[in-house]
Design a protein that fits this description.
Number of strands: 6
Distance between the termini: 32 Å
Strand content: 15-25%
Oligomer: single chain
Largest sheet: 6 strands, parallel
Number of helices: 5
CATH class: Alpha Beta
Number of domains: 1
Radius of gyration: 17 Å
Helix content: 40-55%
Shape: globular
CATH superfamily: NAD(P)-binding Rossmann-like Domain
Mean pLDDT: 90
């Protein structure tokens, strides 16, 4: 694997050279910032987006900076596309993954009585089902790396009421609890699970 340009001025302590990372939804918002930072510290990063033109633009931007960045077109609400994404990650990183950032999320802010069955299903599928399934698929790659890390991007809405909508809040609360369970269950495989609860809900991507 080629060396990335590490632009950090913090010294070798902060180097991620040799690390591999998957960031879902890495072409916008928090995900885009995470890809930037991981790649700037020297990690080889794979990301995904539903929009091919957006993904291509971001990859060109990162590669022009000397970053090791690759990507896949993937709608994480689709189980077959999630499986294809992880197959591409396994191929790109020779069956080993060090860092998995579960970032994709969406929201509809509504009073509880106004949610349709379709909206409820979409929020659960994108925010919770995809994260759970992707962790299942990522587990053998993280285990094979020797020491792996899963980072969930959650929300304070999963802990207290922020007026973000009851379905979104329920999804994030479930993500927080999923993190605790994976941290305990997969510790024996040298995989740690971490959750970051930010204060603002994700926009509808």
């Amino acid at each position: 694997m080629a060396e990335a340009h590490n632009i950090s001025n913090r010294g070798p302590r902060w180097s991620l050279n040799g690390m591999t990372a998957l960031v879902t939804g890495g072409t916008r918002g928090i995900g885009h910032a995470i890809v930037n930072d991981l790649a700037a510290f020297g990690a080889a990063v794979h990301t995904c987006s539903r929009t091919e033109s957006e993904l291509t633009k971001c990859l060109q931007e990162w590669q022009s900076q000397g970053f090791l960045a690759t990507g896949s077109v993937c709608d994480v609400s689709s189980r077959p596309q999630r499986e294809k994404l992880m197959q591409e990650v396994a191929s790109t990183f020779n069956g080993k993954l060090k860092i998995f950032i579960n970032n994709v999320g969406t929201n509809f802010r509504k009073p509880t009585v106004e949610y349709t069955a379709e909206e409820y299903s979409e929020l659960m599928t994108v925010n919770l089902d995809s994260a759970f399934h992707l962790c299942q698929l990522a587990h053998p790659l993280l285990k094979a790396s020797g020491v792996g890390s899963i980072v969930f991007i959650s929300s304070v809405a999963g802990v207290v009421s922020l007026g973000t909508g009851s379905v979104y809040a329920a999804c994030k609360a479930a993500i927080n609890q999923l993190t605790k369970n994976l941290a305990c269950e997969w510790a024996k495989d040298n995989i740690r699970a971490i959750v970051l609860c930010h204060g603002q809900p994700e926009p509808h991507l």
